[in-house]
Amino acid sequence: MFLLLFLLIPIFAAIALLFIKKEQSVNLIAIGSGLLTLLGALHIILNKTGNYDASWLPILNSRFLLQADGLAKILILLTAISFPAIFIATSNNKTNQKNVFLSLMLLTQAGLMGVFLAGDALLFYFFWELALIPVYFLCSIWGGEKRIAVTFKFFIYTFLGSLFMLIGIILLYSNTADHSFLIESLKHANVSPAQSATAFALFFIAFAIKMPIFPLHTWQPDAYEQSPTAVTMVLSAVMVKMGLYGIIRWLMPLFPTAFLAHANMVVILSVIGILYASFIAIRQDDMKRLIAYSSIAHIGLMNAALFTHNQVGVQGALIQLFSHGVNVLGLWIIADIIEQQTGTRSMKALGGIAKKQPTLAILLVGFAFANIALPLTNAFVGEFLMFNSLFQFNPWIAAAAGVSVVLAAIYTLNMVQKVAYGEVSEATNLMTAPNKNAQAVLIVLLVIVFVTGVYPQPLFDVTADTLKQLFVK
Amino acid sequence: MNAIIVSTLLGVVMMFCSWITTSAKAQRNIGLVGMLILIVANLAQLKGWWVIDFDTKGMLAFNQIGLFANMTLFILTFLYLWINGEEIEKVGNNHTADYYAIFFFILCGVSVLTSFDNLLMLFIGIEILSIPLYILTGSDKKNLLSNEASLKYFLMGSFSTGILLLGITFIYGATGSFHLTMPVINPTTHMVTEHFLMSAGLILLFASMNFKVSAAPFHFWTPDVYDGAPTVFTSFMATIVKAAGFIAFIKVFETQRMALGFTWYIILSFVIVATLLIGNITAVFQRSVKRMLAYSSIAQAGFMLFALYGNSIFNTEAILLYIVAYSLATIGLFAVLVKMKDYSFESFNGLAKQHPVLAFLTTLFLFSLAGIPLTAGFFAKYYMLNALLTAGAGLWLLIVAILFAAVSVFYYFKLVQAMYFTPGTPAINEIDKKYEFKLWVLAVIILLLGVFPSLLFNYLYF
Fold first, then answer.
1. Are strands A62-66 and A52-57 parallel, antiparallel or unpaired?
2. b vs e for A247-279, b when ≥16 Cβ sit within 10 Å of the residue's Cβ?
3. Hey, is the C-beta of A126 within 8 angstroms of any chain B C-beta?
4. Predicted local confidence at residue B192, as pLDDT
5. What is the mean pLDDT of residues B267-288?
């Protein structure tokens, strides 16, 4: 029953927001509901919770089943941290019809929570789509100049992907003994190896588009650039995790044979994607695009690690799911502060922020280190484990992927250097008093970065049961 | 039988209604009450309370599914008349009562099409359905487009009826009977004995039925007729009439398709792919929303044709749900369109600012057509794909289906973009709260079926 709250709180808050116009109370409600969800997330991590199971579509034998294992918990925690953080950090931004904006954001949150909690394939599909629709409106109404075309591309891409997944679901479902969408039943579906491989491909396309994996990534940099920054934060901190989540939750248990059979191809594609994105990131001038490409590289690494099907690699990816979310959220918030105050995202036009706002510069350096995965930061733990597994999988591939660490250092430090140091530029001169709310959020996030970097044990503990399920027979 | 007789009587009553009252409002209300009587009469037969029955020598057979199909189509018609009542009056020239009479005659044809058991009755049903439609198409007498559409529809329609008759004749030649019988199965090979006349007849029948449901390559009349006819009547043609055509189509080929052997799957797949391709791709390039909806109705027919692939209960469920979902959304969209001053996409610009509720409802209807979850359209597509897979269709057909479903998002969302993201002043007539309420009713049904599609089927089985 408790798990239902993760859907109900944001949905009720979203409905309430539609009827409130006053900006201050709008912010308060959004932040309040976000914090309430965060409390709930902490509660389920510290305590045991039962599943929520209700009959939904008796005629199809689909159940409204919500369940939280380690994988779900860690992503719920990430979602629950991200949303209030975004709400607080952007609370001073000027937005037309802010109540509608926040209402749609909360609906997205509910959709995401549903995706991470659903234990029934049809329910999963429902939430998978529901998370997308508010984002479509958010990006198209409040986005940048080319928003409509770009968002449309993003929408059609992901919609097509999810339709493929729907066929995969139907294919498995029609072959289950008890005609049910539950993971357990789908796992024992009576399918031939060829059918299983097809279903694997159908699911994989949906997840690959969402993450995205090379060569299906073309929607992403444009979408990140054109979206309002608050939405970009959701997209890159939480929403891309849906794809990785899908791989761990659905692909790995449902298609063990096909998974191993395609591992080589997927790992190689991911590594190509990592290097490709890293090289492009080096050439970027727009901060948002740089972070977007850097994010593609990081997600590619996680995907590669998952497909090594090695306990160490999967453990690394599970932790990195959370760490990457926190890091990239930090970087986006900083990029947003800079854009709000200077009116530009071009690194050429920026410079010398360290002189104007030393705190912001320190925070930027902190998150930049986390982005490169230096020791003591949270990303180091995950990346270390993931490279370890890649090395066991194939040393040459590991070596190729390893180049991306160097490249990450190049583009991240280059960004820090251009943005934070050097002469105070014209644009930077416009910077006013620091944004207290956003900086407070950043400090909290940075504390998480270093605490989980030095003492990641709690994250290992939370995800232990997922790992056990996947690897101990 | 109840529905056939009651609808005929109601048609006659409406014809003479203008003797009783000349007030259009009164005529409208009489029509609505008549519609309710028709629904109750059909329900009485469905539940077995009160049945008019006489020996039709096996020409008509009433089964649960046919009566249920009547029920859904009548309720859809009721909703249609209830929403569009005032617009029907505006079409014209003090003929309101006559229009209602025509509607009842069409419904009589619908009830014949859901219950025929004999190819002659199929022919009669289609004629009863079609002739009033030619009149409705041309009812805007002073509009040249409407006249052209009517003439075109009439000519093409009679031509296709000719093909239908030829097909029936061939089948009669092969079997010596007009009845829908099981194909002859060879006892040694267990294969259906193929008979040249039979196959030729069935293929002609297939072509003519494709014309009625506007499937490619027999769709050429659709855009012009839908565009030329008065918008309120287009709404009726694109939904209830098309749905009845599909039910008849499925009834004919449920068993007869076996006589065609494997060829059936080849021609059906060809027609489906062609319909999806032409409908969807052409819809993308339309400038007028009304024409876009005409092509969208061709595209949706492609999806509905999937129901012909198998003959299990899944197919019946799928087509019924699809018909309901598609009709509700299309009636809703046309009801919005009817209020627009012109039908271009640009006239929808900025609708969300001026009429947020109306824009929201339109979006919901479009979502349902596109098959987005939480709307009836999603489950319609889901059931259809499921039925297709259960019938043993190749995966490629499913993939073609979803690729075109993605294309359909493209043109449906163009309207969403115009309403929400493009600034401008919408060219729209006054809309009162009552009209909005009527649209809300449609929207609520769509949402309800989108969460609990079983609501519809409960009545099919119990």
1. antiparallel
2. bbbbbbebbeebbeebbeebbbbbbbbbbbbbb
3. yes
4. 64
5. 92
What pLDDT, in 10s, does the model give residues B22-34? 888 888 899 999 9
Last residue of a domain, one of A206, A233, A254: A254
CB contact at 8 A, A119 and A73: no
Identify each DSSP E strand in A67-120 by its residue range. Answer: none
Q: What is the mean pLDDT of residues B361-380?
A: 91
Judgement on whether residues A336 and A404 belong to the same structural domain of the protein: yes
Give contacts of B284 with chain A, Cβ < 8 Å: none
Q: Which residues of B257-288 are buried (b: 16+ CB within 10 A; e: fewer)?
A: bbbbeeebbebbbebbbbbbbbbbebbeebeb
Residue-range definition of the domain harbouring residue A189 = 1-254
Task: Tell me if chain B has a CB within 8 Å of the CB of A64.
Answer: no
Q: Measured between CA atoms, how close is A160 to chain B, in angstroms? A: 6
CB contact under 8 A, A167 and B395: yes
Q: Which of A15, A19, A21, A59 to mutate to test binding with chain B, by most B CBs within 10 Å of its CB?
A: A59
Note whether A243 and A279 are same-domain residues: no
Domain boundaries, chain B: 116-461
Among candidates B402, B409, B421 on the partner chain, residue whose Cβ is nearest the Cβ of A164: B402
Taking the C-alpha atoms of residue A7 and residue A86, their distance in angstroms, rounded to an integer, is 19
Q: Which two tokens mark A274?
A: 């990592």
Residues of chain A in contact with residue B405, where contact means CB-CB under 8 angstroms, are: 163
Chain B within 8 Å of A160 (Cβ-Cβ)? yes
| CA-based nearest distance A352→chain B, Å | 38
Q: Which residue has the tokens 């052997």?
A: B261
Q: Which two tokens stand for residue B264?
A: 């059936």
Rounded to an integer, what distance in angstroms lies between the CA atom of residue A292 and that of residue A233?
10
ipTM: 0.88
Which pair of structure tokens corresponds to residue A400?
């190729």
Answer for the pair B106, B93: CB distance below 8 angstroms, yes or no: no
d(CA A410, CA B172): 81
Closest by CA to B4, choosing from B52, B75, B59, is B52
Which of these ranges, A117-121, B172-176, B185-189, has the smallest mean pLDDT?
B185-189
Count up the domains in chain A and report the number.
Answer: 2
Q: What pLDDT sits at residue B190?
A: 64
CB–CB contacts below 8 A, A to B: 62
**Cβ–Cβ gap A170/B386 under 8 Å:** yes
A203 touches chain B (CB under 8 A): no
